Amino acid sequence: MSIPDVDVTAVPDDGVLLDVREPDEWQAGHVPGAVHIPLRDLPGRLDDIPDEDPVYVVCKVGGRSAHAAAWLNSIGRSAVNVAGGMESWHAAGRPMTSENGNDPVVA
């Protein structure tokens, strides 16, 4: 099964971004307004994902988000993997924030 993916520069500013990284990665730096659901929690938290399609799924480099996007697509959601993950997001200078009061980084 082919997993649709998109370059970080093509993710629309008003797109729904689902971050499937672990809590410590999220706290170090994430996209403002993104929905955070660690990959392991995803099956039990489907109601926390906005109903908008597509959902853009991101992790650190793209592996976990590819698995999440494939699974979401298999259950009837429209999901797109963000190629290169948060490392590419950060390198492209896209907006980031952190919850620890430090400059946002990709962890």
From TrEMBL:
A Pfam family reported for this protein in Swiss-Prot or TrEMBL: Rhodanese
Domain (Rhodanese) ranges: 11-98
Superkingdom of the source species: Bacteria
Gene3D superfamilies hit by this protein: Rhodanese-like domain
Coiled-coil regions listed: none
InterPro entries: GlpE_sulfurtransferase, Rhodanese-like_dom, Rhodanese-like_dom_sf
Stated name of the protein: Rhodanese-like domain-containing protein
